[in-house]
Amino acid sequence: MAGKPAKLKHVPQRTCIGCRTVLAKRTLTRVVRQADGVFIDPSGKMNGRGAYLHNQKSCWEHGLKGALANALKVALTTEDRQRLEIYMASLPKESASETDAQA
Ligand SMILES: [Zn+2]
């Protein structure tokens, strides 16, 4: 009788398009491209092409500079930008605990 392989707990991982760090999906915020624009998707369940960003201002700034448009293969409209900037404004500037590992 062949033993069943132990089931490893699978933690989905995604790459932050701002800093290219691979992290557990739950620590990232999903941004999704819809027919009528680019939206924040806190539930992670919206349909459409998605990209992931850290909850870190620097990553969002980088994303808004072009990484996000690249990842979603779409040009950000003024409205998209405003929406993302409002979200970005609520984020902490740096997360000290997460930059430690890279320094
Ligand atoms: Zn990042």
* CATH-assigned fold name: Hypothetical Cytosolic Protein, Chain: A
Q: How are the strands of the biggest sheet laid out side by side?
A: 4-3-5
Total individual domains: 1
How many individual β-strands?
5
Give unreliable regions as ranges.
99-103
Describe this structure in words.
There is one protein chain. This protein is α+β, with helices and mostly antiparallel strands. The protein has a single domain (14-94), classed as YlxR-like (Hypothetical Cytosolic Protein, Chain: A, 2-Layer Sandwich). The chain is 31% helix and 22% strand. It has three helices and five strands. Helix 1 packs antiparallel against helix 2 (78-89). The radius of gyration is 16 Å and the shape is elongated. It starts with 12 loop residues before the first strand and ends with a helix. The model is unreliable at 99-103 (pLDDT under 50). The structure holds zinc ion.
Tag the structure with descriptive keywords.
103 residues; alpha+beta; Hypothetical Cytosolic Protein, Chain: A; 3-stranded antiparallel beta sheet; two-stranded antiparallel ribbon; 5 strands; 31% helix; elongated; disordered C terminus; binds zinc ion
Helix/strand layout:
Layout lengths: L12 E3 L6 E3 L3 E7 L2 E5 L8 E5 L2 H16 L5 H12 L6 H4 L4
Antiparallel strand pairs: 1-2, 3-4, 3-5
Bound molecules: zinc ion (ZN).
Zinc ion binds next to loops.
